[in-house]
Amino acid sequence: MLVISRKAGESIVISDNIKITVLSQGSDKITLGIDAPKDIRIVREELIETIEANKTSSERIDESDFKSIARLIKNKKNTGKKY
Prior knowledge:
The protein has two domains: 1-38, no CATH class; 43-83, no CATH class. It is 39% helix and 22% strand. It has two helices and three strands; from the N terminus they run E-E-E-H-H. It has a three-stranded antiparallel sheet with strand order 1-2-3, with no helix packed on it. The radius of gyration is 24 Å and the shape is elongated.
């Protein structure tokens, strides 16, 4: 990993077509501006992690889980119980 220090208003350039500029800096965060071609996908890392976690959890649900959920819903409607 390359580590570079920048102040507000300073930039770095990646591959001649991506420019990252420090717009402002506070005590606990910085604000970045990213100028890149529209075909370059830019996503915050925590969103990618959330998407991957959701994919993993949905893959673990099998048909028996769906049947169990369906039974609970059916029983709830028949008994009038609220969960």
